[in-house]
Specification:
Two copies of one chain form a homodimer. The first copy, chain A, has seven helices and 28 strands. By secondary structure, the first copy, chain A, is an alpha/beta fold. Chain A has a six-stranded mixed beta sheet. The interface between A and B is large, with 120 and 120 residues.
Chain lengths: 396, 396
């Protein structure tokens, strides 16, 4: 009846909505996340550098003149970055050149200012470093030729890659954007954040935690709705929401309780259930299905705050695959995969260590304030030794 | 003359503008980054759980009745989450209870549905598990008492903490926001991303890479300006910009070149230079100063794309302190701290390994497409062995 974690993961991956591709104006683009990827291959528009590029402020001379012993050079002019190319007319003279300038035609050696004295229109080499032809010259095409693949589709867009896109002239670039999501909080016990709850009520918080994690993972369009435990209201909302979102994530209402109406309502409205229940703690009652007609994916997360955050991170966010080394022995007897909140430390020995946080039970969401994420302890074992490594998921 | 890296870092930290504190509406808040922190201490508004909380769907009974051997209980009613508290009138009866409900007065044991059969208004315990008083009861105040500190000021706002803020009723919460920044590209060689450059021109890309990194680190207000290598234009812009920003980051114009006007112009306009030059590669010409009158911090990054990104990440972004283990020997002779672009791998042994990327020189910015960040190799050494660990800075 209960699926194992890896089967659940596979089913979810098969059915998750594709990210939407749209062009982004690179000059205007706002906050792209590190989860967002290129939807196209990036190729160079021309050779790079596009010209023989001067790499130091100084003078450019002909290697042959320098190599034959000449150390004093008359200056023919100044070549700065952005100036059209110039030509050395006297092979025994020099041009003053600035970093980024086009190397003057007829020169093939740059000597930096630090090794020169310049007076009266003459540059004198005052430091006799060992030199070779093409010193401080960044040769045209030495980084790449025109039409070369620079980044494959699927690359995440970190800041150097953003700069490369700009340099190569991708003023519009096709980028994958996460689907439009609605988060639906269910439960008569829930009141608004700003409300003063009765002693038997609690404030709605799960959907805000989930939204925060989604935002940090690049989801820009995340709606929030609160629904009472009322089948009519749930039905009415669903019929609208499925037409306007690619992904609906419910918090609460999927357990065995008398007020857990969701799975039955979804079924009545034509949603195909793909699973209900995973052999995991927390998060056992998790539900997953697809509304084929509207191509909407439906997720039912348990109402418990720890469960809902763990399930979102484990199954829906694109996180780097990281392993952490357990600092202490853990025993967990039930035949379930155990997601254990931990503090994570990066050591000066290049290791990631993970230390279980003290918590009483999966209702103790305040204990998460001291955690950095959770590790995944496999179902088939019950003892986990200090020093063993397990997959670590960091909180977004 | 050249500062060492740690001295430069200390001077920068002493002068960087404070992050601005402002209240965020938690229900409305958009994208907070993982670099953003709480500007206030968070305390619990009441005990948590705020009542004896039922942890499983099932029935609640008196332990004394169960313990004396009773296994069949008449059902007095249904207590769901969000309902005001109810009381067991007959100590030998039970209430059906849903997860999250208030434990009925007079009961102190929850038995889950899975271990029951319910027919004709009676619940029969059909599975004889070992039980203790308070099973599946999350005791009032067991997570925290009222007025207890839950999160200190300075905590980063990850998703569980966001949820906790909501649960505790912080509908408005004081959060630190990064300063308002302007990025200024200088250089006559630069054209717009959408332009077709002449062979001797390049597209402006540094400021877009820098903005992308700042965005990912929580900077929401990042302006971009392009200036020619023209002292009058630079002066005019500066006199405006310093009144409207807390941090001005220039790209280019701080080297020894004839068109590197910035340090002199800043000095003329009253900026106090705190340093010019760091014993590092890349990024040696970096400049740093403060305009005391306007309380504006001025940064001059080298125009080289690799240098400017490295300097931004090394000195200005709040990144986790991570060490990576070098996969191969590196030799670097100059008496400079060496920032070396690397690929980073998380191993199943809980390690972070870093592999230098092949690059020709710090002008080869395309090579960064294959890197995940850079490591810092200390100035006082020239050989770095495979297996040694060094600080790693990941690209934002």
């Amino acid at each position: 009846m209960l699926l194992d974690v890896s089967t659940a993961e596979r089913i979810i991956q098969q059915h998750l909505p594709n990210w939407r591709v749209s062009d982004v104006d690179l000059a205007e683009a706002g906050n792209l996340s590190l989860a967002q990827t290129l939807a196209q291959t990036i190729v160079s528009d021309r050779a790079y550098p596009p010209y023989h590029r001067v790499m130091m402020d100084g003078i450019a001379v002909a290697w042959s003149a320098y190599n034959s012993g000449q150390r004093i050079f008359a200056i023919e002019g100044l070549a700065a970055a952005g100036m059209p190319p110039v030509t050395l007319s006297d092979p025994c003279a020099c041009w003053e050149v600035m970093t980024g300038a086009v190397l003057p035609e007829g020169t093939d050696l740059v000597i930096p200012y630090e090794e020169l004295k310049i007076t009266g229109g003459q540059a004198t080499v005052v430091q006799d470093s060992p030199r070779r032809s093409l010193d401080y010259v960044h040769l045209k095409g030495s980084d790449c030729s025109a039409g070369q693949e620079i980044m494959p589709a699927g690359s995440v867009i970190n800041s150097p890659r953003y700069g490369i896109l700009a340099a190569l002239g991708y003023s519009q670039v096709a980028i994958c954007h996460p689907p439009k999501v609605e988060l639906i909080a269910t439960g008569d016990e829930l009141v608004a954040i700003a409300a003063s709850p009765e002693p038997y009520q609690i404030r709605s918080s799960n959907v805000y935690a989930l939204r925060s994690a989604l935002h940090k993972s690049g989801y820009a369009e995340v709606g929030i709705v609160h629904l009472p435990d009322d089948p009519a209201a749930i039905r009415q909302h669903y019929q609208q929401a499925r037409t306007q979102n690619q992904l609906l994530i419910y918090s609460g209402g999927v357990s065995q309780g008398k007020r857990d109406y969701l799975p039955q309502i979804w079924q009545e409205l034509g949603v195909t259930q793909l699973f209900h229940g995973i052999a995991q703690r927390p998060g056992k009652p998790m539900w997953f299905g697809v509304d084929q007609q509207y191509q909407t994916v439906i997720v039912g997360l348990p109402g418990n705050p720890v469960s809902s955050l763990v399930c979102l991170h484990r199954y829906f966010l694109k996180l780097p695959k990281i392993w952490g080394k357990l600092t202490e022995k853990v025993v967990f007897i039930p035949n379930l995969t155990y997601f254990l909140p931990v503090q994570c430390t990066y050591t000066a020995q290049g290791e990631i260590t993970v230390q279980p946080v003290k918590w009483q039970n999966s209702g103790d969401f305040l204990a998460l304030a001291d955690s950095d994420g959770f590790i995944e302890l496999p179902q088939e074992r019950s003892e986990f030794r200090a020093g063993e490594c397990f997959p670590f998921y960091g909180w977004q």
